[in-house]
UniProtKB/TrEMBL annotation:
It comes from the Bacteria. Pfam families: DUF4331 (PF14224). InterPro entries: DUF4331. This is DUF4331 family protein. PROSITE patterns: PROKAR_LIPOPROTEIN. It comes from Polaribacter cellanae.
């Protein structure tokens, strides 16, 4: 019995010493939050879905992705305009405009600064048919890709069935699951 007591006590003491020696020293402190001390590099910029993908030429992707938004318009608007005119017959003629009433230069000037705007005092929507509400934020249920297709290919009336109807709608009219009515609002995964 005395021998078992000594074995158990020895085992506990050795285990305690091992655990104590494996812990951090008293002068080491745990970080209170994430550690951002490393070197980080931005790899992709996507303020508005698909804009970077569609309008930035392949040889300029890396440059665009590391350019701060305040400098994007000056550096990339003419490339955006060239690519828009090459893609969209809705801007084939001088003076052609989109549903926002913008010609190719004005529209690509808006798009070249790839940020998601947010209206602090108005309606938050990607597009609801009212030009003043366009790109004023993004609600979860906004059909962003169809809106972009309408603004690129849809012509001046903003309808998916006027100019270029096969190019003006992604034909996805709703999320596959209803959004939640409280935080985190996103639908649960499958």
């Amino acid at each position: 019995m005395k021998f078992n007591f000594i074995k158990y006590t020895t085992a506990i003491v050795i285990t305690s010493l091992i655990l104590v020696s494996c812990s951090k020293k008293d002068n080491d402190s745990e970080p209170l939050g994430p550690d951002f001390s490393g070197t980080y590099m931005q790899k992709d910029q996507m303020g508005r879905p698909a804009v970077n993908t569609v309008f930035v030429s392949a040889n300029k992707k890396d440059e665009f992705n590391v350019t701060v938004p305040s400098q994007q318009n000056a550096k990339f608007q003419s490339m955006f305009e060239t690519n828009l005119k090459g893609l969209s017959p809705a801007f084939a003629n001088p003076g052609d405009k989109n549903a926002l009433g913008q010609d190719a230069a004005a529209f690509t000037g808006l798009l070249a600064t790839d940020v998601l705007n947010v209206s602090l005092d108005g309606k938050t929507t990607f597009f609801d048919g009212v030009a003043a509400n366009t790109l004023s934020g993004r609600a979860l249920a906004d059909d962003v890709i169809t809106v972009e297709l309408i603004l690129i290919f849809g012509g001046e009336d903003g309808l998916t069935n006027s100019e270029n109807p096969t190019l003006s709608d992604d034909n996805v009219s709703a999320n596959d699951k209803d959004f939640l009515t409280s935080f985190p609002y996103l639908a649960s995964p499958w």
